[in-house]
Write a structure and sequence with these properties.
The protein has about 400 residues and is an alpha/beta fold. It contains 12 helices and 20 strands. It is globular, with a radius of gyration of 21 Å. The protein binds glutamine (GLN).
């Protein structure tokens, strides 16, 4: 008879001193919080240890895209959806736009054991994919308890471990969790930005053809890559842009030399204020040159910083595929994909910034536009992947507004 989920779930939080030797020896995976709480479970994916900020994601599907999203670098993702693995993994759902960007999420935590794939699109089992990406995973964990703790106490630093032989070094995990640097003040985009500038060819996915080719003519959009998600590039191409990706370290002069009709400031991991230390000069230079700009997520936060506003660390963050966002201009509510742990402080926005979107979960800022420059910016993920496509039109609107190059 197959094991029930209840039998697989041992992972209530305990402290190391309260665990018996037999319990520790029976576990092949563990999640350890910086306060010393230990959740024992089963290891999966890559063996070894990983440390990062623990966040929860409520998406019911799209787990490959989530863990492949470079914005999750330095984070361990706890899925609230219990069953992981049904869809498996496939090359078409890759969200890393460059080899460097494959260093995304460092860990995954789930309630049930990872199941074998049952999708016609699967090319690989999810567990194999996790291992191939170096993602350490722990299953059999009481993810509801973990999520409640994040909701109440904020996102903790954790160390997770997977030891195939059952010899978990919990003392080491406790030490790693305690030493782990918090997300505030961390610059992680240099780890996941593409090394070289270059064109991007593929556009939207359609069944049964797969990805379409991007256009050969049309406005040229330079994307400043801080760990850009591939579907942002595909959506820009799908909306009619010729897409040229440049490393996030590029200067405003480098960007202007490309003669772009528009510039996108991408999503990415880490603390926007820290990345802003080298990126803000470029973003300001591009805005001041009068080039139309679209910001997405980290890009949104950094544009806010570039115009003199502030960003703040959120308590639990927004990570999911069902977040309601109100478009203040149209009054319409869009259900969107979200992934951020920092937010723009609305009260710090200067007079020339008009708020355009707001989260209906907690009222935080989700978008603004400048009244004196062609700049629009959103906190959520209009490219979805995974998630609903309610905000796809952000790309058509931006590309459609650009003068033909
Ligand atoms: N998806 C993103 O671009 C994330 C932005 C930023 N790292 C945050 O967590 O808020």
């Amino acid at each position: 008879m197959s094991e029930t989920i209840e039998n697989q779930v041992r992972g209530k939080s305990r402290f190391l001193k309260d665990l018996s030797r037999a319990e520790i020896e029976a576990a092949t995976g563990a999640v350890v919080l910086a306060d010393g709480s230990v959740f024992l479970g089963q290891g999966a994916g890559a063996t070894g240890t990983a440390t990062g900020e623990l966040c929860f994601n409520t998406a019911m599907t799209g787990h490959q895209e989530i863990l492949a999203d470079p914005s999750y670098a330095g984070q361990v993702v706890c899925f609230t959806f219990p069953h992981i693995g049904n869809v498996g993994a496939n090359q078409e759902d890759e969200e890393a736009a460059s080899d460097q960007a494959r260093r995304a999420a460092v860990g995954m935590v789930s309630r049930a054991k990872i199941t074998p794939p049952a999708s016609w699109r699967a090319e690989q089992g999810f567990e194999e994919w996790l291992a191939s990406r170096g993602i350490v995973a722990v299953t059999g964990i009481d993810t509801r308890t973990l999520t409640r703790r994040i909701r109440e106490e904020g996102m903790p630093m954790v160390a997770i471990g997977h030891a195939r032989d059952g010899r978990l070094d919990l003392d080491k995990l406790v030490a790693l969790a305690k030493e782990a640097p918090t997300m505030e003040g961390r610059e992680l985009t240099r780890e996941v930005t593409g090394a070289a500038a270059g064109g991007w060819q593929s556009a939207d996915w359609k069944w049964p053809e797969g990805y379409a080719e991007g256009p050969k003519s049309g406005p040229k959009v330079v994307v400043l890559d801080y760990g850009v998600k591939a579907n942002i590039l595909r959506r820009l191409a799908g909306a009619g842009a010729r897409v040229h990706v440049m490393p996030g370290s590029s200067s405003a002069e480098d960007v202007i030399r490309e003669k772009p009709d528009g510039v996108v400031v991408s999503n990415g991991p880490g603390d926007p204020a820290e990345t802003g230390k080298f990126a803000l000069a470029t973003i300001r230079g591009v805005i001041e040159a009068g080039i139309p700009v679209l910001g997405i997520c980290l890009g949104h936060q950094m544009i806010a910083l570039a115009i003199g506003a502030k960003t703040v660390k959120m308590t639990q963050g927004h990570h999911g595929a069902n977040h309601p966002v109100k478009n203040i201009e149209t009054g319409q509510v869009e259900i969107v994909s979200m992934n951020h742990g920092f937010a723009v402080d609305r009260d710090s926005l200067p007079d020339n910034a008009k708020e355009t979107h707001v989260s209906l979960f907690d009222g935080t800022n989700c978008g603004f536009m400048l009244t004196d420059k062609p700049v629009t910016s959103v906190q959520h993920h209009p490219e979805a992947s995974p998630g609903p496509q309610d905000s796809f039109a952000v790309f058509e609107k931006f590309v459609g507004s650009l003068a033909r190059g």
